[in-house]
Amino acid sequence: MKIPSRTAAVLAVACLVLAGCSKDAPTGTPPAGSGPGGVGVDLPRADSDFWNAYARYVPEKAAEAGVELVSTTNSQNNVQTLISNVDSMVTQGARAIVMAPQDTGAIGPKLDELAGRGIPVISVDTRPDTGQVYMVVRADNRAYGTRACEFLGEELGGRGKVVEFQGSLSSVNGRDRSEAFKECMGTRFPDITVFEEPTDWEGGRAQAALETRLATDPDLKGVYMQAGGVFLDPTLQVLKQRGLLVPPTDPRHIVIVSNDGIPQELDAIRKGEIDATVSQPADDYAGIGLHWARRALAGERPAPGPTDHGSTVVELPNGFEDQLPAPLVTRDNVDDPALWGNGSGS
Length: 346
Description:
By secondary structure, this protein is α/β, with parallel strands linked by helices. Helix content is 40%, strand content 20%. Keywords: Signal.
């Protein structure tokens, strides 16, 4: 049926005012008008309070967005399992995939394969190094490292010893946080000694590293945990065992800044056990990720610029990235109801 020219013009204007909409579907996206489709979601791991919270948000946000979940799997921090899970979801009828690849280098070939088959991929929290993606939904991880550095540096008056629990350096998040933290410390606080401890996002490795460091450097004054979801409990256990889990008013207090914004971190800030965290939004990672999956299935092409949900889309060499805000949380704003860690879904 031919659409009247006046109606077509109105539809065209409506598309342009919709944030990120374009008349041309991107590579790897079903053409507009091809009908609804199901979405497959792979969860990256089950040993992190942050990712467990994200998992709880997924079905809730899918219902809100009107997205059909074909399947939800868990790749347990293993890229080969992720690839197998994706293949299974596609076989079950998934026409778009939401994933959070922890090894951001190894997933590239699978992403290109999916793009070639017309199956758009939304990558949550991590930005793949290579491989075509429809959208990355992610906060600025370099800002995490910089904010942690600035907080620790100012709290310590620019002097002292700090241990840093680095995430996996095969992940863009681990690299971004580590590089930004190091650059900031070297430039702004050269009198602070930083002990970099690789952990591969494993709490046990962080715990062992802290025990060793406190034995060799008992005058340690700060800790940067790149992921509170896996590092918080082990860190607090070590400090408690050594009689160092004391309030900020005690001169023995070790200043701790974290990343994630899970409810447990917020409670630890209230208790004076840790001092700050950068809150990455588990609720928005789920909601905005599924939002982009729905738009991909509708055949829309993202466009750089501000969104209608308070973020900014930027173009990448291999797709687009929706950069979500991630606030620093301290004693001053820990009770803010806008923080996802204070919400009922957390």
